[in-house]
């Protein structure tokens, strides 16, 4: 709709305003959801969407109209049910496979293998159908546009990082640091404010600096901030956790508007609907994949680190035995706990091992997200060297 309703020279500002909602919403969502959960019930996180949905539908009905070239078309509406079905099959089965994979031990499960096959059938079938159907639900030929194809890849990478980290950080705060749902959500709020403040700066830079350099700078900020987040420790305080997230948010502010603007800079008007649909699909699907893989990685890496640390808790490991004896002696001398001091010390060291395993898993996830951001930087050089003013003629 933004492509249809706004002139090319105004699209940068339009994308800037829309990006505030698109990027800030998943950042502020955990904050609002945490407050609702703590003060009412987790069910209201879903119920609250009902009036919002009703108001949105009424607003769309009252305020939006088809653009002139769409309104003039009297051709009978043709729905590509085959294309829709194949896309739904492929992406739906992919999401189920990613969500259930960790619980079912991935490809050792017949359920996961079945859904993997269905995913391949759906995605490959959808690509073939959309390439050769007379009136496909989405025209894939727009992927021949280099700027659009590269921007879609970069947007997908950004979405994986954004949504994956937006789930992992509140999970860390609530499950491992003991924060309430409200406070775990509040960790993300300052980052949302930074994004809102960064976007106007980006809009000022876009007519001056080549868009691809702004995008490369954004991914560099993301990569460095997540690499810095690897210094996470179990005794981290609220302010430091907020600082980590705020640093990550700066990079996000330099990505969405430039990526969206350059993606459509050379797309013909008749392909606006197809390109917008694909661009949004890439972002949403990649975001879902980021959430699933991040949560699965936390579980898998926690188990791996726990197994490794357990190898150092044997009777033949002298550093472990020395620490155990010192802790047991301290429990016996300075506490009033009833029971075998050695047994109590062993239990405490086991809890410390589990805690360390969890935090090492978060460090691994931050490392992976940092690596993904670094790997995406070279792709920015494939974009056209333009200073985006939202104009198709800017290049």
What's the short version?
By secondary structure, the chain is mostly helical. The protein has helices at residues 2-5, 11-39, 44-47, 49-63, 68-71, 81-101, 110-132, 146-176, 181-186, 189-205, 211-228, 238-253, 256-263, 272-310, 318-334, 341-376. It is elongated, with a radius of gyration of 25 Å.
Q: Which key phrases capture this entry?
A:
Growth Hormone, Chain: A; mainly alpha; 3 domains; 73% helix; 395 residues
What can you see in these coordinates?
- Belongs to the major facilitator superfamily. EmrB family.
- The chain crosses the membrane at residues 12-36, 42-61, 81-98, 110-132, 153-173, 185-206, 213-229, 249-267, 359-384.
- Keywords: Cell membrane, Membrane, Transmembrane, Transmembrane helix, Transport.
- It comes from Leclercia adecarboxylata.
- It holds the Pfam family MFS_1.
- By secondary structure, this protein is mainly alpha-helical.
- The protein has three domains: 1-75, no CATH class; 76-137; 143-394, Growth Hormone, Chain: A.
- Helices cover 73% and strands 0% of the residues.
- The chain is built from 16 helices and no strands.
- The chain has helices spanning 2-5, 11-39, 44-47, 49-63, 68-71, 81-101, 110-132, 146-176, 181-186, 189-205, 211-228, 238-253, 256-263, 272-310, 318-334, 341-376.
- Helix 10 (189-205) packs parallel to helix 12 and helix 14 (272-310) runs antiparallel to helix 16 (341-376).
- The longest helix is centred in the C-terminal third of the chain and has 39 residues, at 272-310.
- The protein is elongated, with a radius of gyration of 25 Å.
- The two termini are 23 Å apart.
């Amino acid at each position: 709709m933004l492509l249809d309703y706004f002139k090319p020279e105004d699209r940068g500002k339009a994308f800037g305003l829309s990006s505030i909602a698109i990027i800030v919403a998943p950042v502020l969502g955990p904050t609002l959801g945490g407050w609702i959960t703590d003060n009412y019930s987790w069910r209201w996180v879903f119920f609250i969407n009902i009036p919002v949905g009703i108001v949105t539908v009424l607003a769309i009905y009252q305020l939006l109209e088809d653009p002139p070239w769409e309104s003039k078309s009297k051709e009978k509406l043709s729905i590509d049910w085959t294309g829709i079905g194949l896309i739904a099959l492929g992406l739906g089965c992919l999401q189920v496979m990613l969500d259930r994979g960790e619980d079912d031990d991935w490809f050792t499960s017949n359920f996961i293998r079945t859904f993997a096959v269905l995913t391949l059938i759906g995605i490959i079938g959808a690509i073939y159908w959309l390439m050769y159907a007379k009136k496909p639900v989405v025209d894939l030929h727009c992927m021949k546009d280099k700027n659009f194809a590269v921007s879609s890849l970069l947007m997908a990478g950004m979405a994986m990082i954004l949504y994956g980290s937006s789930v992992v950080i509140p999970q860390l705060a609530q499950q491992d640091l003991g924060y309430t749902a409200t406070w775990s959500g509040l960790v993300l709020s300052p980052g949302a404010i930074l994004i809102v403040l960064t976007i106007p700066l980006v809009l000022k830079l876009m007519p001056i600096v080549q868009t691809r350099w702004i995008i490369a700078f954004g991914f560099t900020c993301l990569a460095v901030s997540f690499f810095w987040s690897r210094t996470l420790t179990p005794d981290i305080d609220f302010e430091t956790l907020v600082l980590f997230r705020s640093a990550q948010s700066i990079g996000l502010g330099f990505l969405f508007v430039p990526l969206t603007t350059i993606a459509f800079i050379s797309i013909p008007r008749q392909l606006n609907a197809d390109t917008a649909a694909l661009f949004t699909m890439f972002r949403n699907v990649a975001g879902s994949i980021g959430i699933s893989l991040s949560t699965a990685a936390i579980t898998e890496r926690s188990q791996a680190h726990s197994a490794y640390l357990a190898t150092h808790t044997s009777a033949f490991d002298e550093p472990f035995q020395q620490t155990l004896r010192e802790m047991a002696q301290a429990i016996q001398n300075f506490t009033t706990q009833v029971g075998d001091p050695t047994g109590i010390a062993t239990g405490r060291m086991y809890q410390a091992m589990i805690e360390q395993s969890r935090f090492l898993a978060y460090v691994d996830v931050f490392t992976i997200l940092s690596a993904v951001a670094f790997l995406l930087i070279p792709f920015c050089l494939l974009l056209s060297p333009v200073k985006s003013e939202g104009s198709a003629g800017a290049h």
